[in-house]
Amino acid sequence: MKKTSFILATLMAAVLASCTTGTPKANLKSDVDTLSYAIGMAQSQGLKEYLSNRMGVDTTYLDAFIKGFNESAKSSGNKKDNAYYAGLQIGQQVSQQMMKSINDELFGSDSTQTISLDNFMAGFVAGTTGKGGLMTVDSASTVAQAKMQEVKARHMEEVYGENKKQCEEFMANIAKKEGIKALENGVYYEVLTEGKGEIPADTSRVKVHYEGKLINDSIFDSSYKRNQPTTFRADMVIPGWTNALTHMPVGSKWKVYIPQDQAYADREMGQIKPFSCLIFTIDLLGIEK
């Protein structure tokens, strides 16, 4: 029998409310009875894993799940209870998924920081009921986006501000070095090998060898170590790379110094912490036509 999804979807959707808490006993008097039982049994396949891995349910408390399942599945005609159980489900999604996602976006690995659940709930209820709101739902989206950027930026400055300071000092010293040349937006480079070929456009597909370092000289990436050049479009990388590539003749090998705002800025990328300056040796091998 082809496995259907509508029963499992019903379990996970806005669910229903309650009439009775007892699980019915199987009584297979007809083909339809047997079919019904078999479908129910088949739909339980993988459910424990789904509850645990996707919904965060501790399956030690499976009895509580069964109780809720029994109540909700038998109350499809009760609109008030349907609404109540939908609220329970959405509330769980907020507490277990949405809050975590928002906090991760704002504060990263800092588990001591969190948005206010009470204020979130107050705004949610006002927006849902249309009563007592301190702003309109439309304006709330704009406010939320702007405030998220402000709060995230402030937090990143508090935690990684020293990186930004070190980057500024490093780039200021690089600018004074003999043989250093400037590009736009604070990017500097020195020529290791002078190329004579074509200069890529930002839409060109380029073939390069490269090595990336932090200002403490630790290597975070190297195509040389992999013994494998890489190919990509010149505008599909960080701005500092695009800036350099669109000034490099094919055959050139440059050492490029990229300030944090032309690299990953306040993003953390593995070994690269927020506000890190980057140093790349870039060997432009060719342009793919």
Briefly, what is this?
This protein is an alpha+beta fold and 289 residues long.
Largest sheet composition: 7 strands, antiparallel
Outline:
elongated
Instruction: Please report which band the strand proportion falls in: under 5%, 5-15%, 15-25%, 25-35%, 35-45% or over 45%.
Output: 5-15%
Compute the gyration radius: what is it? 29 Å
Q: Could you name the ranges where pLDDT drops below 50 across 5 or more consecutive residues?
A: 1-21
| Whole-number mean pLDDT | 85
- Specify the number of helices: 9
Count of β-strands: 7
What's the order of the H and E elements? HHHHHHHEEEEHEHEE
Structural domain tally: 2
Structural class assignment: alpha+beta
Helicity range? 40-55%
Through-space gap between termini:
52 Å
